[in-house]
Amino acid sequence: MAIIASNFKTNHTRETTVEFIAKLNDFLTEKKIDNEVYVFPTATSLNSFETLSTLNIGVQNAYPTKNGSFTGEIGTEQLDEFNIKTILIGHSERRHVLGESQEEITKKFNFYKDLNYKIVYCIGEPLEVKEQGIEQTLEYLYEQFVGIDVNYENLILAYEPVWAIGTGVTATNDDIKAVHSVIKEKIDKPLLYGGSVKVNNVKEICSLDGVDGALIGTASWNIDDFKQIIENTKDL
């Protein structure tokens, strides 16, 4: 059964997020869809949402702390208010745009692991690594598992080639299968694909061996598109 996740990134407001999640929850209820669905709104849009148990609201980022003097960050004191127990860690935009090191990512992972959060852990390679071939790509990806407990029971992995995120360029089926098959051999966890996943390609991607679902950015921000994505993958 495919796992479908939406990462809002820096999009939507508190008001439009409430509307989005209400419509999504109604859709899942009416269609009797029992796939796992995740939505990661902005931190300012977190709220006490009434949802099905299969619709999980997570946070895109948080600091490894309860509270404290960390300007611009949020911790578990803020997440607990809304009963958030799911977090996205290691996304390439936090690695490459915001400069999070593997050491910082590992610290965050271990902190939220100890609190038994559901962790969606992202890995991916930039174009210059991909062009060096599959061996170099896998070596680069393995470095992103340093310090990470891949046996953690509440772990979902997401492979997102950096060169395919928001570019409109989707990895070929062979690209996806090559990476997913090797990771699945080594790590027995659900493995999502992300990177220019759209309404018209999500079913084909999620049907590939070793692909357990999708982590979607741009194409998931419109509620009608996201509902169609879930509709297209509900029987996989």
Strand numbers in spatial order across the main sheet = 3-2-1-8
Which class best fits the helix and strand makeup?
A: alpha/beta
> Beta-sheet strand percentage?
5-15%
Taken in chain order, the helices and strands follow as: EHEEHEHHEHHEHEHEH
**Global morphology:** globular
Q: Please compute the radius of gyration using only Cα atoms.
A: 17 Å
Helix content: 25-40%
Uncertain spans: none
Query: What number is the mean pLDDT?
Result: 96
Describe the structure.
The chain has 236 residues and is an alpha/beta fold. The chain has 9 helices and 8 strands. It has one domain: TIM Barrel. The strands form 2 sheets. It has a 4-stranded parallel beta sheet. A 4-stranded parallel beta sheet has the order 4-5-6-7, with helices on one face. Strand 6, helix 7 and strand 7 form a beta-alpha-beta unit. It starts with a strand and ends with a helix. It is an enzyme of class 5 (isomerase).
